[in-house]
Design a protein that fits this description.
Strand content: under 5%
Structural class: mainly alpha
Low-confidence stretches: none
Number of strands: 0
């Protein structure tokens, strides 16, 4: 959720928006996938998400419920390739985002972020 929120906007703006999204969950945590799907899109837009990011958050929630997006425990046991394949199927998450997740959240420093030649 955080990665989708932070895409293509300043860090300060994204932090403000993500704090608003977290406030929609319980105990200071972002909404669960089930809670996210119950939120009206207008509420997420009011928090500051673009329409595309609202859709991305909804797809992330649904794919988490469907088991496509693994739990942190499951992710730790999966290969880099399998994680990239599964997570890039979520709108708003690309290979680079998954590779940053591998490096910074799963502690896999041997992961090499993709680069795009122009």
């Amino acid at each position: 959720m955080e990665s989708i929120t932070y895409q293509s906007i300043s860090g300060k703006a994204a932090a403000t928006i993500f704090a608003r999204i977290k406030a929609l969950g319980t105990n200071g945590r972002p909404p669960t996938p089930q809670e996210m799907l119950k939120l009206r899109p207008q509420k997420l837009r009011k928090a500051g998400l673009s329409g595309a990011k609202v859709f991305g958050h909804e797809r992330l929630a649904q794919k988490t419920i469907d088991g496509v997006v693994p739990t942190m425990e499951e992710a730790q046991k999966m290969s880099d390739e399998e994680l990239v394949e599964r997570l890039v199927s979520v709108r708003g998450i690309g290979a680079w985002t998954v590779e940053m997740f591998l490096i910074f959240r799963l502690g896999r420093p041997d992961s090499c972020p993709s680069t795009t030649s122009v």
